[in-house]
Amino acid sequence: MKKFILIAIFSALVSSVALGQGSYNFANSVSSLVQIQYWPEAPHAATAVEDTYVEFLWAPFGITDLNLFQVVGTKLQVGIPAQGRFAAGARTIPAGTGFSGIEPGATVNAFIRAWIAPEWSTEWNNRLFQGYSSIFTVDTGDPTLLPPSVPANINSSTATPFTGVIITIPEPTTSDLLILAGLVPLKRRKNRSVNL
Predict the structure, then answer these.
(1) I need a surface site. Which of 112, 149, 169, 182 has the fewest CB within 10 A?
(2) Quick check: helix, strand or coil at residue 187?
(3) What does the alpha-carbon distance between residue 163 and residue 161 come to, in Å, rounded to a whole number?
(4) Buried residues in 34-68 as b, exposed as e (16+ CB within 10 A)
(5) How far, rounded to the nearest angstrom, does the alpha carbon of residue 46 sit from its chain's CA centroid?
(6) For 71-93, how does the pLDDT look when each residue is reduced to its tens digit (9 = 90+)?
């Protein structure tokens, strides 16, 4: 009976680790914060109430064209567990070759894309504010080993780690302010006509 249980546990472990081929720890540190800069003010660490999100994108080692990078997993909110921080734990890049996936424990190029949710955007720009980290490399962990190797930490896995990202929000231009000034009276006129 003990032998049967050990075989069952071993089989389950092998099948579960075979699904993912390159593991990494999707979390940043105090040296790689996500920050927001309202130009010309100094950047500050993003908080949870600012609706800031990040996602991890990867490409085969050596690729630098950002349009070729693939998203892994889902977006993650910044500011949890602390300002400027995010922590999703271990994630894996699927198995494959080229742009479809990687070999177990392979090194990949990656970058972090950060943005502020559209609901937060102001009327004067009506666009999604985004920021991009520089490209860094990740020596992924190998989940096919028994026991699996430790997932790579994006902050310190290679000589070129993730060092943070800044979302810059520019000052509104004079034309932006004039558009806003023109919209306010129109909105008031509409409200008055409705009230009559």
Answers:
(1) 182
(2) helix
(3) 6
(4) bbbbeeeeebebbeeebbbbbbbbbbbeeeeeeee
(5) 13
(6) 999 999 999 999 999 999 999 99
* Mean predicted lDDT score pLDDT of the chain: 80
Least confident of 80-89, 107-116, 121-130: 121-130
Record the tokens describing residue 18, joined without a space.
């075979």
User: Which residue shows structure tokens 């949710």?
Assistant: 117
Nearest one of 113, 119, 132, 45 to 80, comparing CA atoms: 45
Q: What is the pLDDT of residues 22-46, one digit of tens each?
A: 999 999 999 999 999 998 899 999 9
Which are the contacts of 54, defined by CB distance < 8 A and separation ≥ 6?
A: 34, 75, 76, 78, 86, 112, 113, 114, 165
Say how many Å lie between the first and final Cα of the chain, rounded. Answer: 85
Decide if 52 contacts 31 (C-beta within 8 A): no
